[in-house]
Amino acid sequence: MTLFLSTYVNKIDKKGRISVPASFRQALAQQPFQGIVVFRSYKFPAIEGMGIERMQRLSASVDELDLFSDMQDDLTATIFADSQLLPFDGEGRVILPEPLLVHAGIQTEAAFVGRGATFQIWNPQAFEEQQKSARLRVQDKQATVKLRSALSGEGA
After folding, report:
1. CA distance 132 to 150
2. For the chain, how long is the longest CA-to-CA vector?
3. What's the rounded Cα separation, in Å, for the pair 22 and 111?
4. Per-residue pLDDT for 76 more than 80?
5. How many CA atoms lie within 13 A of 56 on its CB side?
6. CA–CA separation, 131 vs 51, rounded Å?
7. Which residues have CB under 8 Å from 39's CB, separation 6+?
8. Residue 72 CB coordination number (10 Å)
9. pLDDT digits (tens, 9 = 90+) for 136-145
10. Class assignment of domain 7-141?
């Protein structure tokens, strides 16, 4: 199972390239497409990112919705029509498309934020504020997680 952890802030060079964190590239090393899949988050001013295998699973999940339903149409337009395949160059960098940078308010540096099976790319200052808010919501709600049994988990 691909797992993205931690937060890394990397600079965008003059040619628009940014290094994908080494641990993220390592998590994707066994996938058939050597790069990342990204699209605009519909919830946050951020870029959603994942490997091609996760995107294929997402596609299969959307395919289970009623064909031509409003929900299926909206999700395919929001996710797949907006997605970009970004291959790694020889140094593990990608070029983030301008519309995605504008959506996330990213200019000179970006935060790669691990979210388990997926990751996000944020303006570092915007993510810092979002993370503070998320921590407060978790504390206020006293949120907990029920740990899945190792026998029932995927890739256990």
Report:
1. 31
2. 48
3. 14
4. yes
5. 6
6. 23
7. 47, 48, 78, 79, 80, 82, 83, 84, 100
8. 15
9. 999 999 988 8
10. alpha beta
